[in-house]
Design goal:
single chain; 316 residues; alpha/beta; seven-stranded parallel beta sheet; three-stranded mixed beta sheet; 14 helices; 13 strands; 18% strand; globular; binds NADP nicotinamide-adenine-dinucleotide phosphate
Length: 316
Amino acid sequence: MAEKRIIAVVGATGAQGGGLVRAILSDPRGGFSARALTRDVNSEKAKALAKLGAEVVAADVDDVESLKRAFEGAYGAYCVTFFWAHFSPEKELAEATNMAQAAKQAGIEHVIWSTLEDTRQWVPLSDNRMPTLMGKYKVPHFDAKGEANQVFTDLGLPVTFLLTSFYWDNFIYFGMGPKKGPDGKLALTLPMGDKRLSGIAAEDIGKCAHGIFKRGREFIGKTVGIAGEHLTGAQMASALTKALGQEVRYNAVPPQVYRNFGFPGAQDLGNMFQFYHDFNEYFCAARKLEIARALNPALQTFDAWLAQYKARIPLG
Ligand SMILES: NC(=O)c1ccc[n+]([C@@H]2O[C@H](COP(=O)([O-])OP(=O)(O)OC[C@H]3O[C@@H](n4cnc5c(N)ncnc54)[C@H](OP(=O)(O)O)[C@@H]3O)[C@@H](O)[C@H]2O)c1
């Protein structure tokens, strides 16, 4: 049997990378093996990946030498950064640069860079529809990812730019799910007006990435946008109502109100939703459901995701 080609996966114990590792391992005839990168090879999550059949190696995206060692001998690399671990776009750019340099040195044949738009190309800093944050960003956790695209391009890497979407899992882990109002009724609060939010089951991102690697050179040099569905707040509230068996109302608030909610990252997310809202046609068109489904035939709809995870959504 032909030797399997190694995919080195950054963030393997997390949502995106974990999905990719599991997709590779559940497709033994797919031609790839998974090398899971983690800062702690002895963590429970790392051990669970090893048990599934992944090669688990130590690496830290802040340490370029560790990345070079971890990428050595691999065919592919899945590169992702962790904005919410530090809230620093500058750090994110530096981490992306480390991964790109390591991929270059290791001679990686296919890099997937998990990116998002540099929203400043649509909303320049001089545009006051939303505040400028951290001195030079509109949506800090988007902008540095988009800015980093150029680093991969400048190094001449064989790269696919993967534009991801809002994880529905945020309703479980990110405090974004329906909350009880003073009237005791559940409401899904989003500053999206009547526009559509491109959403996806986080696990499906890795499955789509696996599909991209399996297509060989087809997507090298290309941008691929993925989503599971584009749904309005009202549609999501209605799906939640059905799944949870209790009424969930859609509470559309202005972005300015959302920005002032005061939780860490509220301003960044308020700007993000406003970007989704104001450039809705572009945003949804850049994330094609048909492409995501072609790459990952098991792509979940919101209803399917809810059927699996509804019990885990905290209803505060
Ligand atoms: N939430 C959303 O809706 C959404 C949508 C689109 C894009 N994103 C983006 O997705 C990115 C996060 O990806 P994710 O959700 O897959 O992450 P995640 O589930 O939070 O996973 C983070 C994993 O990354 C590893 N990690 C953290 N810091 C690291 C470091 N310095 N070096 C190496 N590994 C490190 C950790 O593994 P170890 O502890 O094992 O090292 C952890 O398991 C963010 O940048 C975010 O902006 C999020």
